[in-house]
Structures are given as structure tokens and as C-alpha cells.
Design goal:
By secondary structure, this protein is an alpha+beta fold. Helices cover 35% and strands 23% of the residues. It has 17 helices and 23 strands. The chain has helices at 4-32, 52-61, 63-77, 122-128, 133-143, 146-162, 174-191, 199-218, 228-244, 247-264, 276-289, 294-297, 300-315, 343-355, 369-374, 377-380, 460-465; strands spanning 80-83, 86-89, 317-318, 322-323, 393-394, 399-406, 409-416, 436-440, 443-446, 473-475, 482-483, 489-491, 495-501, 505-511, 517-525, 530-550, 556-559, 565-568, 572-577, 583-588, 597-601, 604-607, 609-631. The strands form six sheets. Strands 10, 13, 14, 15, 16, 17, 18, 19, 20 and 23 form a ten-stranded antiparallel beta sheet that branches. A five-stranded antiparallel beta sheet has the order 5-6-7-8-9, with no helix packed on it. A hairpin with a 2-residue loop joins strand 1 and strand 2 (86-89). It is globular and about 75 Å long.
């Protein structure tokens, strides 16, 4: 049970109208209609089947993707499924109420109240989203091996049997139901027009989808909760309504998606939630939805936002495959894997096709096996080989990119000086204002620490979201913004850009409620081979300032006699020269503070090196750090 002050603060964030109209009205409706909806006798499930010709073409074009998909399906049959982007063993047959990681079992026969949850529901939700089921159906179509199709259908039917109407952890939120329906529709589309989908199974799946869609339609995440969850639910309603022939759900989903694109995706392509991972998920919902909606396909705002988002994601790609770990990342996926082509690159290619700006596509877009099934690949052909350059400024999100040059390649720094996150909750934002990330030729040298977990409240959520987990400045050990629980900000601090000279320098400012003012300027020096970072901090009285720089786990790190952090990777290296007059210390996997941790994916953390420079000051101080990059010999 959460403390009373949390309920008070959450109620204030919701506002009177949301409390009365949405929350209380929903409770009343649930009390009046506690049972499942009556499924129409004439209900049918109609989807566009994947043709045998398409399967043959895919096998010819993407043999590596075929091999990977079949290998993943073999693992799933043996009880190892893809969760959070990595393999996890599960007990077969699957108990859909058991956490696949901790093996804890959630209650089956009661309604679960998330307000009283003390441990993380995210792993069991990940299992029940069924992102991994399309791999099985796809492998069946690629090989003809009926084991894969039987396993996919068995999982769906056992889920239906184990999860009656509104009982258990898998009915706690509409987002989870919508994501599961999207996965089921991929399976049905792949098995449609084959002997592996009997009519009785089709009817049971359609009836379950009808009930789940009815729940989603009655429990949309509106008001203060209207973030990526609402877009997921709308996409689920649009796709399920289209497949089931329920026009009111299709129209509702389509309308919500049209309304939300301009709210959640900023004009410059950044995400209003200040989370790159949730921006990618949001865009994936639109990539799926335009296939069945001519209204969305022709929406000029959607086209503009898609083009802008492709530019932003191209500027934020690290190591050539993944986006910078800005804000929360729960490891969720929307599109099936269908090969090893990088997920964010697939999204960029899809956005390029939807927007009509084919120069935004990735240089290796022809290798994109996932785009083959999304449909717009044909729109990218016949437009030459020119690829758009990387954009440098994204003022709505507060991101600015500076590029320097080495004889053997380019160095890029991404500077964050924007708003905290989507009001009123800012639930997926981090306290990362005025932070920097650095990479050379795609190799990451300074990183963001990631997310790791949402629950339980044992300090790790606060650490990974907190200021100390980002390459910025902390004063008096206090985070820049204050949170109550996993997703509720109670005192927010927004940064702003105060100077931008493209290709030369950028500066931002942060004014905190406790009277601290922090200005950070970053400029290219040494002929574009280094960055100078100047932190000006003002606060009355005596204070402690800490400057953090985080190296990725994949690098070799040491500290020299002068207190400089030396970060080496295969093709390049970085020297972090700390501010003069500071005490410097290098941390690696410290669990007491904590400090020196990195999360590559949800639910996993790894020790990494973090350089901390500390100094006590009175009233004001200026701290200058220098980041020098050099190519490694050989």
C-alpha cells in the first residue's frame, strides 16, 4: 500500500475533472457491468493472409533472417523465449501468472490492485505480451514444420483458458491487452489460409479479442495518463476493430491516434516524454496502423512528425544500431523481430517511407527484413542512393549535436538542455538536464546509465533515474527534480537552451527550486578534436558540487596520476580531464552509494566506470572539464 501523501499528490496531478469523469465514472461503470461483454454470434476474424509468394520472396532475399527466425522458434519450442530482447527460460507448459524471472506467482482469482504492488509486474507482463509468438508462426511458414504453429496456437489457447474476464495480473491495464492483441493478429495473419488454424480456434481467439478490446475501449489511459500507453491502446483498437469488423473500435482507435501524434511527437521529431525508447515504441504503433487506415496514411501532421522523428533518431544512434539511452526504456517491442536488422533503423526506414522523404532512409535499408512485412519498402526504391545528412538541433526536445573531426573519423556529442518530460507526471523522464553523451564513429565513449527497473522501490529506480547516473552536475546530493514513487514528479525542473552556434558551441541553463542555478556551456576546441565543458554554479552559502562522467561497460578504463579518466575502445580513446581544484574518484559497481552502474536492458545491470569530481564552494564556482578524443594505434 502506498503512503497517503502519494494518493494526494497523484490526485492533484489528475485534477478534479479526471477524478470525477474518468476515474469515478469508470469505477461506477465497472460496478454496473461487472461481467464480460456478450460476444456477437456473427463475430468473425478477418485478416490479410501472408501469401506463399511473399514467403518465397522473403526466403530468397533474407536467408540470414530466415535462419535466425527458425533458431529463435526452436528455442521457444524448447522453453526459451525472447523477453526484453534476450532469451529467458520458461517452464512448459507456461503458467501465465508466474514471473518468468523470479518464479513468483501472482494471484489468479482476484483483481490485482497495482497501487498495492510491492514487486515488479513488468516481467510477467512482458511474457504475456506475446511478442515472441509471431516468431513461431513465421517459422512455420518458412519451414512447414507444424510444431511451430501448434506451439503458437497452444500458447494463445492456454492463455485464454487461464485468464478469465478481469481476473489476475494480466487484466490490470488496457495497454497490456492491446499489445497482446497486436501479437495475436500477427500470428493469425501468418496462419490464415493454412490448415493449422481450425475454425474452432479462430472463434475462441476472436471471442477473447472481442472481450479484451471491449475492456480497452472502456479503460483508455486518458487525462494525466495519456502517454505512449494511450497510443498503444488506440493502435490495438484500430487493428482489432479492423480484424473483427467492429467499426466503432476502429474509428475510436483511428481518432485517438490522429489526435495524439502531434502531442507525443514534437515538431522537431523528439518525444514529448523525453524517452527515446518510448518514442520508438510510439512510432512503431503508427507504422502498423497506417497499413489499415487511409486517414492516417494521408495525415499531413503524421507525415511531418515521421520525417522529423527519422532525423532525430538518426542523430541519436549509437554504435550504429541502438539509440542513445535517454529516459526510460522498459525493453518493450511492438514489431516482431523477423531478423537481426537493427530495430531503430527499421523504424527510421518505415518513417522515411510514410513521410515520402526517402533520403531519410538508412544507407543499408535494403537489408531491412522487418520493413518487408510493414509494406512501405517499395516506396523507398527508385529514389537513387542519396542519404540525408545528420541534423544538429532539436529545440523542442532540447537536444543539440556537436561534431568534431579526427583524421580517422568524426566525434559527436549530444547535449540535453530541454524540458523534463510530458506533464503532469513526467513519468518516463530522467533527471538528466545538461548531460552529455559522446561517441566517435558510432563507438560510445560517454554514456547514459539506462533504466534497469521500475519496481520495487529499493533505491535502484531512484538511482538510474537520478542526476548521479548521468554525465552532468549534482549539487548537495540532490536530484534536479523530485519524484514520489516510480512515475510521479512532485517538483520538476526544466532546462533551456541559452546559446546555440551550429558546429561550434551550445549552452543551457537550469534553475532549481532550492535556489541553485547551473549553466553549462560546451564548445569544440583544439581544431575540432576536443570539447570544453564549463559549468557555472551559483547558490547562496556553502555547497558541494559533483561532476559525473560515465563510461560504457564495453570500454577499458583507468585513471592516471593527474586524476584523468582514460577510456579506450577498439578504434578510439577518450581522455576526461576533470576540473582543477576538485577531488576525483573513479567508481565501479559501488552498491552502497550507489555509483558506477549501467543497464543495457530492462532487468539487468552491469558495473561500469564513473568518474566523479567533487568540490565545496561558497556562493559560486566555475568548473571546466575537457574531453579529448584520439584514434587508437592500429
Amino acid at each position: 500500500m502506498r503512503p497517503l501523501h502519494w494518493y494526494w499528490r497523484r490526485g492533484r496531478a489528475m485534477g478534479l475533472r479526471e477524478l470525477v469523469v474518468s476515474h469515478a465514472g469508470r469505477r461506477l461503470r465497472d460496478a454496473v457491468r461487472p461481467g464480460p461483454p456478450r460476444v456477437p454470434v456473427s463475430l468473425s476474424l478477418g485478416v490479410e493472409a501472408v501469401s506463399a509468394a511473399s514467403i518465397r520472396e522473403f526466403k530468397d532475399k533474407y536467408p540470414e533472417a530466415v535462419a535466425q527466425t527458425v533458431a529463435t522458434a526452436e528455442q521457444a519450442v524448447d522453453g526459451v523465449v525472447r523477453l526484453f530482447g534476450r532469451p529467458h527460460p520458461v517452464s512448459m507448459p507456461i503458467d501465465w501468472h508466474t514471473d518468468p524471472i523470479t518464479r513468483d506467482t501472482w494471484p489468479r482469482n482476484t483483481r490485482v490492485d497495482l497501487m498495492s504492488v510491492s514487486h515488479d509486474p513488468r516481467p510477467v507482463w512482458e511474457l504475456n505480451r506475446h511478442h515472441w509468438l509471431p516468431d513461431l508462426a513465421f517459422a512455420y511458414r518458412l519451414t512447414g514444420d507444424e510444431r511451430f504453429a501448434r506451439e503458437a496456437l497452444c500458447c494463445i489457447e492456454s492463455w485464454i483458458e487461464q485468464n478469465p474476464w478481469r481476473l489476475g495480473i494480466n487484466w490490470t491495464g488496457p495497454t497490456e491487452l492491446a499489445l497482446r492483441e497486436i501479437s495475436w493478429l500477427w500470428v493469425i495473419r501468418l496462419l490464415e489460409a493454412t490448415a493449422m488454424l481450425p475454425e474452432a480456434a479462430r472463434h475462441r481467439i476472436a471471442a477473447s479479442m472481442y472481450c479484451q478490446s471491449a475492456f480497452v475501449a472502456d479503460h483508455l489511459s486518458v487525462g494525466s495518463s495519456a502517454n505512449n500507453h494511450l497510443v498503444a491502446e488506440a493502435a490495438g483498437l484500430l487493428l482489432a476493430g479492423h480484424a473483427l469488423g467492429i467499426e466503432r473500435w476502429r474509428l475510436l482507435g483511428e481518432t485517438v491516434l490522429a489526435q495524439q501524434v502531434g502531442r507525443l511527437v514534437c515538431e522537431d521529431g523528439t518525444g514529448a516524454e523525453q524517452s527515446v525508447a518510448y518514442l520508438v515504441q510510439t512510432l512503431e504503433y503508427y507504422l502498423l496502423s497506417v497499413k489499415v487506415s487511409s486517414r492516417l496514411e494521408g495525415d499531413p501532421i503524421l507525415k511531418q512528425r515521421c520525417a522529423a522523428a527519422a532525423r532525430f533518431l538518426s542523430a541519436a544512434i549509437v554504435d550504429g544500431t541502438a539509440p542513445a539511452a535517454i529516459g526510460d526504456d522498459d525493453g518493450g517491442e511492438v514489431l516482431p523481430a523477423m531478423g537481426s536488422y537493427p530495430r531503430v533503423a527499421s523504424v527510421i526506414n518505415g518513417l522515411a517511407a510514410i513521410s515520402g522523404d526517402c533520403e531519410l532512409r538508412r544507407p543499408n535499408w535494403r537489408d531491412d527484413s522487418r520493413l518487408f512485412w510493414l509494406g512501405p519498402a517499395e516506396q523507398l526504391r527508385g529514389h537513387g542512393s542519396r542519404v540525408a545528412g545528420v541534423a544538429e538541433s532539436f529545440p523542442a526536445g532540447g537536444y543539440y549535436r556537436l561534431e568534431g573531426h579526427q583524421p580517422d573519423g568524426n566525434i559527436a556529442l549530444l547535449f540535453d538542455c530541454g524540458p523534463l518530460g510530458l506533464a503532469p507526471l513526467a513519468g518516463h523522464a530522467h533527471c538528466d538536464a545538461l548531460s552529455v553523451m559522446l561517441w566517435q564513429d558510432g563507438a560510445e565513449l560517454l554514456t547514459d546509465s539506462g533504466t534497469f527497473t521500475y519496481w520495487p522501490d529499493d533505491g535502484w529506480r531512484s538511482y538510474f533515474r537520478g542526476t548521479a547516473a548521468h554525465s552532468t552536475v549534482r549539487v548537495d546530493g540532490a536530484d534536479q527534480s523530485v519524484y514520489d514513487g516510480p512515475f510521479l514528479v512532485v517538483r520538476r525542473t526544466d532546462a533551456r537552451c541559452i546559446d546555440w552556434k551550429p558546429g561550434e558551441a551550445v549552452a543551457g541553463e537550469l534553475r532549481m527550486a532550492n535556489g541553485v542555478r547551473h549553466r553549462r556551456s560546451v564548445k569544440l576546441v583544439q581544431g575540432g578534436k576536443a570539447f570544453e565543458i564549463a559549468d557555472e554554479i551559483e547558490a547562496r552559502g556553502t555547497h558541494l558540487a559533483e561532476v559525473f562522467f560515465h563510461a560504457p561497460p564495453s570500454s577499458d578504463v583507468r585513471i592516471d596520476a593527474a586524476g584523468r579518466m582514460l577510456v579506450a575502445r577498439k578504434a578510439c580513446s577518450l581522455t576526461v580531464c576533470p576540473p582543477a581544484g576538485c577531488q576525483t574518484q573513479l567508481y565501479f559497481g559501488n552498491t552502497v552509494l550507489p555509483l558506477g552502474w549501467f543497464s543495457r536492458g530492462y532487468g539487468e545491470r552491469h558495473p561500469c566506470f564513473t568518474l566523479v569530481s567533487r568540490i565545496q564552494f561558497k556562493d559560486a564556482v566555475t568548473l571546466v572539464s575537457v574531453l579529448e578524443t584520439v584514434p587508437c594505434a592500429g
